[in-house]
Amino acid sequence: MPENIDVTGARRDQPRRGQEHFVAPVDEGGLGAVDAVSTTQAPKSLWGDAWAHMRGNVLFWVAGAVIALVVVVAVAPGLFTSIGPRACDLSQSLSGPAAGHPFGFDFQGCDIYSRTVYGARASVVVGVLATAMVVVIGTIVGAIAGYFGGWFDTLLSRLTDIFFAVPLVLAAIVIMSLMSTRTSFTVALVLSLFGWPQIARITRGTVMSVKNNEFVTAARSLGMGRVGILLRHVLPNSTAPIIVYATVALGTFIVAEATLSYLGIGLPPSIVSWGGDISKAQNSIRVAPEILFYPAGGLALTVLGFIMMGDVVRDALDPKARKR
Amino acid sequence: MTTQIPLTGQEPETQGAAPRATDQPLLEIRDLEVAFSTGAGEVKAVRGANLTVYPGQSVAIVGESGSGKSTTAHAIIDLLPGTGKVTGGSIMFDGRELVGVGRKTMEDLRGREIGLVPQDPMSNLNPVWRIGTQVEEALKANGFQGTKAERRERVAGLLAEAGLKDTERRARQYPHEFSGGMRQRSLIAIGLAARPKLLIADEPTSALDVTVQRQILDHLETLTSELGTAVLFITHDLGLAAERAEHLVVMFKGRVVESGPARQILTSPQHPYTQRLVASAPSLSARRIEEAREAGVESVELLAQHADADVEKVRSEDAVVVAKNLTKIFKIRGSRPGASTDFKAVDDVSFTLGRGRTLALVGESGSGKSTAANMVLGLLEPTSGSVEFDGVDVARLSAKEQFAFRRRVQPVFQNPYGSLDPMMSIFRSIEEPLRLHKVGSAKEREARVRELLDMVALPESAMRRYPNELSGGQRQRIAIARALALKPELIVLDEAVSALDVLVQAQILELLGDLQRDLGLSYLFITHDLAVVRQIADTVVVMQDGRVVEHASTDEVFEHPKEQYTQDLLAAIPGRDLDLGLVPPAV
Q1: Of B192 and B416, the one with more pLDDT
Q2: Which of B383, B379, B384 is closest to B410 using CA atoms?
Q3: Which residues on chain A are in Cβ contact (under 8 Å) with B413?
Q4: What is the pLDDT of residue A146?
Q5: Would an 8 Å CB–CB cutoff place B42 in contact with chain A?
Q6: Which of residues 486-545 of B touch A (CB under 8 A)?
Q7: CA dist., res. B235 & res. B64, Å (int)
Q8: Do B19 and A11 touch (CB under 8 A)?
């Protein structure tokens, strides 16, 4: 407003107390160039940033240690026990811990420690295989639906909804009971057949928000093709939520495998698995409840490890949720 | 506590009567220190700030982002975000010390004695409550004890006071039904609901169009002077601050570098930072050019190289872009499925951009300027009409021709945070166009990236960095470098400097000017800010509601605007009526 200035100018020639013209002394370093680039710090990529953040998190090391232990046990169970899981002696049935047999014996007289160690492999194999398949199917479906949109999106989204409506374990029970051969691979295949919709949804949502960014428009005006943009710009920027979900999903697939094995339609008795052992331990739960504890404990620890890791990864990859 | 808060304010003596000679300051901040504790230790956001506001006075804190201006204001009402804490100094309000008072006292003070109009009208109203309910809430929270009917009447009164019409109906609407300006008016109504003695207005209009900004600020000024409310403006715009406030406080890196009467600061800035600010604020430089003109001084520096931009002359021979009767119609989903209405985003727009020249498309939000730009870029197909680039219709290119066209026309976008892929290093971002168009060997491409970084005045070491490590202005320079990589002839700058601080803005504009001179580039410059246009454009096309309102040379538009709308836009540039006293530009 013009009169504001005029009025002020006319009304008071002298500024009021505390409002005199004040000029600060210039800082020693001067003002510096406008908008100078910091040249001292090391460059940090988004992943580098996330890694630096994870490294400082105690939970990351705890979860990492648990996962590493479970993986080593799964790959080389022989390192941890010299007793075979099927070397059972009925005369030892339900007897307590003894020298060389720290967890004691189950109903069949098998060494529980050995069976717990050998059981890890089935869980890890099914978990990793199922997660890998789910990520591949889900990402492809989600990315295509989210990026290309239109009727393709409508079709794929409805298909996702249909699969989404079927409970994972229920569907797996039905399909598994029709299977003649049951191996770790078939279990993982059946689980992933019904487990992908969640990842597809997550990917679709992220892709849809990433594709509206200006760097995508910039790539278009460079003449880059649609597929090129999807692969080079959109997908790399959509991986964070996929990784987070996959880590947590790994835990849930392990639980699902154990559930199926417990019900007797997952892995056959010939494959040592925690789910199967929990099922067998149930028969003698009144006389020897500790038999149940070891496979169940192994299962819980593994799942906990992956879910904790998922939490840590989410914190590290989502700068918005992170405290600055 | 009175049950009825008088509409005319609690201090009638400030109204009309001459100010008392020995009045006490309403707000007195002494040696304020604010720090944020972060993982890397304590970061001082405000260092030894002093500030005095008298009753009924308007004072402005001016500074760029990160200068501590908002932090200072939020420290007053203890609304510091996150880990922020006042670590020293005192804040006296109306004779009371505010540093270290309890939560209860502060809650009583907020709203009732110190009101706040927040920055972003889009996110500061709760979308699930009606406007009326939210104003009513402000009344209730501040001890208004009337009956329901009285409350409702008061809400209507407040909204009317803030300049909303048909208040009964408006109060029953939800925020999404309001335009940005109407939301800001509602926030002003809420801020003034309890007749505070001090109103803190934190960038109250920076998200709004200039004409709306002017209306709202005019209204706020009338209202607060009627009520005798003191106003503390927080703004990045020196022109706006000088126009609206009598006393200015300039902040830089957490310190008050200069303060004093607005007029004095504008005409004789003492601190080098203030001098820089006065020299480069776009609103002021537009004004400075004008003053120079009036005084009969033809300053070549100030006017850049505005060659005689005769619109007619360019039309024929050396045109890079010719837009003819450009129209774009979008279908908007109707109320029933399958039903749709047509929306003319761009309506019969024609313009010509000469080689090596700059054409500015100016308009407020919804004027269709960005849609027109996207059609020039060949990213949108016009419904009718055509864009010719170098004599060839952009919409009728074959895939191969289009790929070649992309090399010659490049965009720079508004949002410096969205225009670079966060996953790619700066090197890969700039190299991408070269690799995509198979230019040179890996070695040559690297050399070219170094050259481009040098062109936009960034050190080579920036190459290995990632976008999240750079400031907005630096990212925008990277975006310009990427656009230049393929040696294009035309660059479409879509609000390319709008999101930047004034000094950085001036720096980028200067860079663009230099590049144009050195490389013979043509610019299509899209902006809502007429003030910026004066510094860069040769020709201006003013757009409103998809149509061209005025198309003339920059000087003509600024000196003899023909249309009412152009005149309104010009009048809305903050600081336009200021008397700058022709300061020599300081560097």
Answers
A1: B192
A2: B379
A3: 214, 217-218
A4: 93
A5: no
A6: 486, 503-504, 507
A7: 8
A8: yes
Closest-CA residue to B47 (of B349, B289, B257)? B257
Cα dist. B10→B2, B146, B159, B161, B268 in Å? 11, 18, 19, 16, 38
CB contacts, 8 Å: A2 with chain B: 577
Q: Give the confidence band of A185 by pLDDT, cuts at 50, 70, 90.
A: very high
Task: Please name each of the domains of chain A with its CATH number.
Answer: 46-317 (1.10.3720.10)
Are A221 and B473 within 8 A, CB to CB? no
Q: Is the pLDDT of residue B430 over 80?
A: yes
User: What average pLDDT does range B509-518 have in this prediction?
Assistant: 89
pLDDT for residue A72: 94
Of A15, A221, A323, the CB nearest to B261: A15
Tell me the ipTM for this assembly: 0.74
B402 close to A (CB below 8 A): yes
Inter-chain residue contact B415 with A214, CB threshold 8 Å: yes
What is the reported pLDDT for B38? 72
Asked whether B460 and B454 are in contact (CB, 8 A), the reply is: yes
Contact list in A for residue B252 (CB cut-off 8 A) is: 31
Q: Which domains does chain B have, with CATH numbers?
A: 12-280 (3.40.50.300), 301-390+489-587 (3.40.50.300)
Tokens of B251: 């902040």
Contacts of the segment A54-62: beta carbons below 8 A, 24+ positions apart: A54/A312, A54/A313, A54/A315, A54/A316, A57/A312, A57/A315, A57/A316, A59/A308, A59/A311, A59/A312, A60/A309, A60/A312, A62/A308
With CB atoms and an 8 Å threshold, state whether B419 touches A8: no
The verdict on B47 touching A (C-beta cutoff 8 Å) is no
Grade residue A320 by pLDDT with cuts at 50, 70 and 90.
low
Indicate the residue of A24, A41, A237 with minimum beta-carbon distance to B271.
A24
Contacts 24+ apart (CB under 8 A), B509-512: B509/B282, B509/B535, B509/B536, B511/B456, B511/B457, B511/B477, B511/B480, B512/B480, B512/B536
The three-point CA angle B465-B470-B473 to 5° equals: 135
The yes-or-no verdict on residue B1 having pLDDT over 50 is no
Q: What is the pLDDT of residue B283?
A: 64
DSSP state string for B439-498: -S-HHHHHHHHHHHHHHTT--GGGGG--GGGS-HHHHHHHHHHHHHTT--SEEEEESTTT
* Residues B255-312: tens digit of each pLDDT: 999 999 988 888 888 898 888 888 877 666 666 666 666 665 544 444 444 444 444 4
For B80-110, write each residue's pLDDT tens digit: 887 888 998 999 998 889 888 888 888 888 8
User: What pTM does this model have?
Assistant: 0.78
